[in-house]
Amino acid sequence: MSGFRISRRARIAAAVALLPVLFHAANAQAHDAGSIDFYAVEKAPAGMKLPFSEAVRAGDMLYLAGMLGTDASGKLVAGGIKPEAKQTMDNISDNLKRHGSSIERLVQCTVALADMADWPAFNEVYRGYFKDQFPARMAFGAGALALGARVEVQCNAYVGSR
User: Fold this and answer.
1) Strand-pair partners of 138
2) What are the residues whose beta carbons fall under 8 Å from the beta carbon of 141, sequence distance 6 or more?
3) How many CA atoms lie within 13 Å of 107's alpha carbon, on the beta-carbon side?
4) Quick one: pLDDT band at residue 35, thresholds 50, 70, 90?
5) Coil, helix or strand for 16?
6) Contact (Cβ atoms closer than 8 angstroms) between residue 113 and residue 71
């Protein structure tokens, strides 16, 4: 096979064409892209099978389902927005700890309020769970929430490498 030569230009073009393939292979090894864990709801009203996971871990992130201010029996705590907001945030903290994260590692929260007039009272309670830095957040008014709740909070947190 003498006389068969690949030009320098062709060798460079072939190498450049392979870069995306090599990058993808290296990236797939570095990140376990197929690793998703679903965690069943631990605090549900007696006999109720809820159609969602309380948390899902995908890679280094933990996605929590919306949390309400329910006690161990699955009933809303009494006393209005402040006790309910505190119980909601305590439930979020417990959920984060069970799944390898913490309040300090929250990166985003979404707050649904049955009445936007409760926003200042909710913020007063919410502020107490953070030191200097707050997760990104949005809040909106909802006409009604599950179980007649005044507040529901959904959060996403960083967990870190496995």
Assistant:
1) 110
2) 112, 113, 114, 115, 116
3) 10
4) confident
5) helix
6) no
Paired tokens of 143: 């006409």
Beta carbons within 8 Å of 135's beta carbon, 6+ residues apart = 106, 107, 108, 109, 155
Of residues 152, 159, 161, 38, the one with CA closest to residue 102: 159
Q: How many residues does the chain have?
A: 162
3-state secondary structure of 22: helix
> What SS3 state is found at 149?
coil
Taking a C-beta distance cutoff of 8 angstroms, is the pair 96, 82 a contact?
Answer: no
Alpha helices in the chain (DSSP H): 8-30, 81-98, 119-127
CB atoms within 10 A of CB 35: 11
Q: What tens digit of pLDDT does each residue of 67-112 get?
A: 999 998 889 999 999 999 999 999 999 999 999 999 999 999 999 9
Q: What CATH code is assigned to 36-158?
A: 3.30.1330.40
**What are the CA-CA distances from residue 45 to residues 7, 42, 65, 82, 146 (Å)?**
72, 10, 16, 22, 12
pTM of the entire predicted model: 0.76
Handedness of CA 127, 130, 136, 137 (dihedral sign): negative
Domain boundaries, the chain: 36-158
